[in-house]
User: Fold these one by one.
Assistant:
Number 1:
Amino acid sequence: MTRAVVRQLSAPELKDMLESDTPPILVDVRTDWERAIARITGAQWLTKESYDGLVALDRRTPIVFQCHHGIRSQAAAEHFVQLGFERVFNLDGGIDAWSSLVDSSVSRY
């Protein structure tokens, strides 16, 4: 069996996934102060408690990680692939791309 890889997702692709009948779990790995500036509706913040809940999920659960530009979220996504998750995505360009390409009401910083 080949190991899953982190798949890059554009902001418009994430929008489509979130609006689908089976939306993925969206995980925000940014800091408190970053989240105070801008958020994608429905994203859950990665905390110790949410981490424990995520690792307990079925390994086929689709999870999308996002940060400011996509670097920290890539690292988090790779960690979840190492844990055996099969449907792991990284928001390419992070919340900055989301603001530019999907929802201009989300503040850029």
Note: Residues 71-82 form the longest helix (12 residues).
Number 2:
Amino acid sequence: MDVRLLLIEIAEKFGLVATAALVSVLVPQLRNRLLGVGGKPRDALVAFLLGFLLAMWGAKMGEPWMGVLVNVHGIGILIGALVGGPRVGFFTGLLGGLFLTFRVDPTLGWVGVFASTLEGTLAGYIAHSRPSAFQGVRPFFITFALEAFRFLVVTIALLVTGEAGHWVAAWPAHLVQIAGTTAGMTFFIAVTRVVLAREEGAVALVEARAAADHLALESLRRRLEPHFLFNALNTLRATIRHDPHKARELVSDLSDLYRYLLNHPEDAPVHSEVEHALAYLAIERARLGDGRLSVETDIAPETRNRRVPALLLQPLVENAVKHGVGAHAGEGVVRVIARREDDTLRIEVEDHCQGEHVGVIEAGTGIALQTLRERLAKRFGDDASLELIPGADGMCARVTLPWTALDEQAAKSAA
């Protein structure tokens, strides 16, 4: 057979090698082994089955040339050894060698079986004891060395028995087989590494975004705890003297507020967010005194159980009190609204104020709304927004979220 046609045949087989690489990444047991975390017997069994099937395929797809069968059954043996370790390499080499000898090409007899078994065991030992040997460009040289070692073992054994003449004379065919196996094994490792690297990169990105969102949430928690608790306790102390019943209600509100703040998931239903906001506003209403703050809600029934990022309302109502009602001399209203509009969930916090502007009741860092914008951007990208819309007697903070994305989050939570 012309060597050029033989090389084409070997190149066509790389498609199956690539498929085997993808299977190795997608099957959990093989993936665990590739990542170095597999340790269960069934993981080793799956690795053996993959290697043995590829070894049989490589043997059956061999092509005769120069009196020998040029095949790539070594790819399966080496893959089994790489994924499963020395024990899997031993059995893959043994059974792969037996299949080649007694079902495909009996030329080498038990010498071929011995050489395949030795190659698989040695490859598995290298993969188990030195995982770095199959990283970077090293797989090419390791595989070439193992295949050359196998050729040398067979040659020595045949020299001992006096049958090496024809075997040695066919060295170009053996060289092609070594090159084909080396290229196939290198290709297999390259494909698995690329797929794993891309997948791990995607997972790392998701985890980084989740961590950033978690840090932003923790920032809101820490920001609320010190200054608000101090003011709430002062209000509670003043209320106890002249209205014990109201003081008890404030204690309940404060307890509910911090219980929600410290013990809830990353996402929460709209009704929980509203209850948390009302507890906060109840304490602020007592602190401002003289009936200066009224609270109204308009929550559409279909929005009550929609899940939103936790503590979404907290900076909005805090901003409405600090820069709205609390910054004016007269009475004011804070209104919380939630409704569905087409494919979006719209949540608004409005403040309507009376009287002249007397200044902000507390100085702030000015980062609460910016932090919320960043959280929404990381979660929903351009599909979410936070707007501040001036009105005739106050401000409206409007958050728009995609309704479909919230549906998916609710389904995941239910599952």
Note: Residues 243-414 form a domain with the Heat Shock Protein 90 fold (CATH 3.30.565.10).
Number 3:
Amino acid sequence: MRECVQAALIGAGTIGTGVIKVLEKNAEVIKRRLGAYLKLKWVCDIDLERPRDVDLSRYMLTKDYKEVIEDPDVDIVIELVGGIHPAKEIVISALEAGKHVVTANKALLAEEGEEVFEAAERHGAELGFEASVAGGIPIIKAIKEGLCANEIERIYGIINGTANYVLTKMEEEHLDFESALKLAQEKGYAEADPTLDIEGIDAAHKAAILATLAFGRAFTLKDVYVEGISGIEFMDILFARDLGYRVKLLAIIKAVDGEVELRVHPTLIPLDSSLAAVRGAYNALSVVGNAVGHTMFYGMGAGQMPTASAVVADLMDIARNIISGSVGRVPTMAYREASHLKVKPVSEIKSKYYLRFSAVDRPGVLSRIAGILGHYGISIESVIQKGRNRESYVPIVMTTHEARESEMLKAVSEIDSLDITGGKTVLIRMENNLD
């Protein structure tokens, strides 16, 4: 039996440092579970001199990733560089050299994933990417293996901790969006440039990866409809609560009539749902299979040690396969045969909607708005109007029964052009069947 599996780390930043910590701290636990040592031989980084709270002198050091890939003793390459380039070149080169690869690179897999997946299959190499979605939550393994007997019907995910923290603080501390974002930055939950998080792009990367595993074909970022949370105002959070809902940035992945709905946007979800209880920087995913029913996954979706935990779990999975001679046992994309499901255009989806209009305070306003909605076949479920102001616009909130997106957008455009409304209508989709 093999006594040692050797790995090389490329990218010794925050997560890479965490990987070193886990491998050192839990070395004996890992050996007992593997029946062999999992040894980190190389550390590669463009800046090996900057201070870190780990001792790199124990490892072979280089700034040239090619030196790592050319080492015949290295079984597994860990790519934690991030971004598309040079990460793609590193991963493809490693796979072509017959190395197995572990990555946390959601952007790479969501934008160039099909080429990477095909390279892994073509060269008979394992590709582990548990850490690319939801940090320490083992959602990739759950879909690929734990739920593999199921046809996945839908996945709902709160998969960006920054956005969830901002929305939580807006509600709890009665903050506007900018103040809540500033607090997230001060606490270290948001980057100096938080665009990827607050505009939904980070969550969309993860949604594309989840859809790929759930439905057996490569989906990319271009397939995902994306809206962020920067347009959410505190009054919308209050109105949502009055209606029995909470605003979340939600990833929605579901099969409907032979097509896939794949979208990330602010969503009103019921206060009594499991996902509504997810606060702060935590992540959670609700996965529904046709045999298992509803399952729920919850935990830290980011951070040094949770993400490092997922990276090392992939290392151990691949090491087990190397030791047992069972490399390739589980397909990289979870399916041996690809599907040809198409993405449903967002204009064709059906949803319930929350609408907030700014309208003049005079008789007949509600009937004009309702008349336009009715013209497009949109039925009103509830109406809230608070406050009176003859001198200015007042908010009118409506929720609707299920309607087609294309018709809703036509109706809103027509309402926004009326002389009784001011500003653009706030439109937030609603999801009820979460648990």
Note: Residues 9 and 220 are 26 Å apart (CA to CA).
